[in-house]
Amino acid sequence: MQFAQRVPMSSQEYAVHSLYRHHHGWLNTWLRCRLGNAADAADLAQDTFLRLLQRTERLELSAPRAFLRTIARGLVIDHWRREELHRAYLESIAHLPPAEVPSLETRALLLELLDGIARLLDGLKPKVRKAFLLSQCEGLAHKDVAEQLGVSLRSVERYVADALFHCYQLRYEQ
Question: Coil, helix or strand for 120?
Fold first, then answer.
């Protein structure tokens, strides 16, 4: 009979394992209260601990629940944004004639694309994101964007360039 060899955990993995063992149930309950959905709460609890495993800096926590709550709160906000994006998309296609309604497969692909775009834009400052969207999605000239945002033309040019560079970095340099 052969025994599986145990691979020793790194100190980081041990710290996350300990946090998981002591606080997973509490975090899952906390998330379920916020989301009103046990399945989403379980997913986000797992995602919280996955984020911890991906961290490179060492975990030394004096208030582990506050730390876990901070990470989970960000994931909840992202979850709500995605849900709102999905709702808005479904509302927009609800008014289409039946012949123009995308197939379920196309819908899934479009929602995935919208999620990706939203994640790309999440890292931008609000004015940069707004300038970028007005310019790229609404087709406004930089001068018009500057008037709408109440900033200089040079600021809009810098905002759009920053947004494009941000998206490029996330897309190609990871």
Answer: helix
Structure tokens at 71: 């990470």
118 burial level (CB within 10 Å; 0-12, 13-18, 19+): middle
The DSSP symbol for 3 reads P
Residue 7's pLDDT is what?
A: 56
Spans of the chain, pLDDT less than 70:
1-10, 56, 58-60, 173-174
94's tokens: 């609800």
- Indicate if 73 and 129 belong to the same structural domain: no
CA distance 48 to 33: 16
Has residue 141 been placed in a domain?
yes
Q: What is the pLDDT of residue 53?
A: 81
Q: At what angle do helices 142-149 and 126-136 cross, to 10 degrees?
A: 140
Residues 87 and 148 in one domain: no
Write out the residue range of the structural domain in which residue 30 sits.
Answer: 10-102
**41 C-beta neighbours (distance < 10 Å), count:** 22
Q: What pLDDT sits at residue 146?
A: 96
CA–CA separation, 95 vs 114, rounded Å? 19
* Number of domains the chain is built from: 2
